[in-house]
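Hmm, how's this folded?
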Amino acid sequence: MFFRSAAALAFSLVAAPAAAVCVGDSYLDRMTPDQQMQLSAAVDGMPYAEGLIWTATKRDAAITIVGTMHIYDPRLEDLRAQLNDTVATADLVMLEATPEEEAQLQNLITTEPERLFIVDGPTLPELVDEDTWQLIAAAATERGIPSFMAAKMQPWYLSLTLGIPSCAMTDMMAGVRGLDHMIIQDAEAAGVPMQAVEPYTTLFDLFKDDSFEEQVDMLRVSMLVPELQEQMFVAMLDHYFAEDVGRLWEMSRIALSDVPDLDQAEANAMFIDMEESLLNTRNRNWIPVITQASAAHDDIVVAVGAAHLIGTEGILRLLENEGWTITRGIAAE
């Protein structure tokens, strides 16, 4: 669904760079005046709705906080250049996942394939109607995923995978990564230690309580309007580089109203549930990890998906509640 796309991109949130092909009509161009007003009202007064780079200070400790995008876009190179010296001179870099967690995750997939794949029982073509399966198979093929492989993916995993438009998938399949990975490369080059803000199994744990039927229903909904997905992606990229993160997130909420045959009350409830699990709960869990690290390190860089920065439950406001002073930009030396 669209909020899963938003999570994959913003929090979430990955030739001629594939993202350079992610152009065309923006979702903003199809929003009605009423939707535009709704969007403006949702962002009005939202704490830290704008900005990608922030500094939190408390006594002698400083934390540079970066809102990242996990998908590659050539415009990220400018942000990387801005952060290069800050990363190279940091005492510690904290991310959603370091190379160590990525290796652990890869090993888990090998040793416990049932986490991501259907290893017993009926596969997706047997669980959805023929028209829906044909849509799923076509979307997977566009992203370089053979239909026989898509048939065996757990529905939640396939939903996240298909939440990335085909225009961005080439880079992902080639291992071309977003700002997080750029920061990892620069930290490795400078010999700066890294630490994850959460266990590598967190995403698995988020979806483990969803029934298989609920996952299949979400997958069905995500396939209803593929052209809207790409329009959302274009709009999300534009808002990210405009540092307009709050509007990016709320736009994905409003887009649910353009999904045909979707009950809006149910859709809103699903969005709120996803927001709580993907953003708010994780943000709250991260704060003690970050503050504990700050007790042992004077100069930290925290690089996490941009959607984690915004709102009353974002990490900036949560740090502020803990007595940190928050200022936009990189701290002057």
Summary: The radius of gyration is 20 Å. Confidence is low (pLDDT under 50) at residues 1-21. The chain has 16 helices and six strands. The beta strands are 53-58, 61-68, 92-95, 194-196, 299-305, 325-328.
